[in-house]
Amino acid sequence: xxxxxxxGGAGFVGKHLIRRLTKNGHKIIVPYQRSVQEAxxxxxxxxxxxxxxxxxxxxxxxxxxxxxxxxxxxNLKTTYDQKKSDFNTTIFKFNQKxxxxxxxxxxxxxxILFSGLxxxxxxxxTRSNAVHKSEKEAxxxxxxxxxxxxxxxxxxxxxxxxxxxxxxxASFFVPLFGDGSTKFQPVFIDDxxxxxxxxxxxxxxxxxxxxxxxxxxxxxxxxxxxxxNFLSKTRVLVPIPMVVMKPLINIAEKTPISPLTxxxxxxxxxxxxxxxxxxxxxxxxxxxxDTLQILRNIVVN
Length: 301
Prior knowledge:
Elements: E1 3-7, H1 12-22, E2 27-32, H2 38-42, E3 50-54, H3 61-68, E4 72-75, H4 87-103, E5 110-114, H5 126-141, E6 145-150, E7 153-154, H6 159-170, E8 173-177, E9 183-184, E10 187-188, H7 189-201, E11 207-212, E12 218-219, H8 220-231, E13 236-240, H9 242-252, H10 262-265, H11 291-300
Parallel strand pairs: 1-2, 1-4, 2-3, 4-5, 5-6, 6-11, 7-10, 8-13
Antiparallel strand pairs: 9-12
């Protein structure tokens, strides 16, 4: 049994990961700042196994004590939300401070940093730049770092399909950002959580980057057509040029009803595919599940 601290553990990926890790008997501590439903987090494991922990800042003495006694620290926080602060502050400076604290820990065996496909080549995204700087800082300062770069994650309440499906169900016309030719390689959440679980249970050390993507490559137009087919509904995809979408989203994201943020819009501008920079599912003996079948199951259920 290991003591594991998970920043961002109350989110979509975090909940799936905690459910898997608790089955192996690990003790999970979930630091949080914004309000969360503590009872639901505790129920992800047996009594006393998952502990939500409210902290004010990384300088919190109690939090430092928790981190100094943890064998594994995972940071899943890679927000797309820029309403409250800039990405350099919420992502890079946060990781920079966290890494500084972890560097002095005698118990820490692994630091796992959640990232994303293509962050090292996406120069036009301030979020990607902040995440990539965090990667470089971790690799520079710590001895044992495992960086997880997933593609667009689907399954079990993911944000991507959660926002997309209501549009398909309610409207005959569905907006297609750009011309729909951009390609991406979505990955199933259970495969991502299994990969992190294996990194921990196999005590993988050193400096590693895992690119995690599903076996299928889709264009967004193809993906949207699959959704229509699985719903057994006729839908007309309406291409909207990025020069039109960008100013609209810039305005909409300042409200609570925006369907996506400017940073999320950048996903539709460039291919989001495996680059094979280091390691993948194969290095962990995992065969990623068919994302087309996963999509079908999500849409029809």
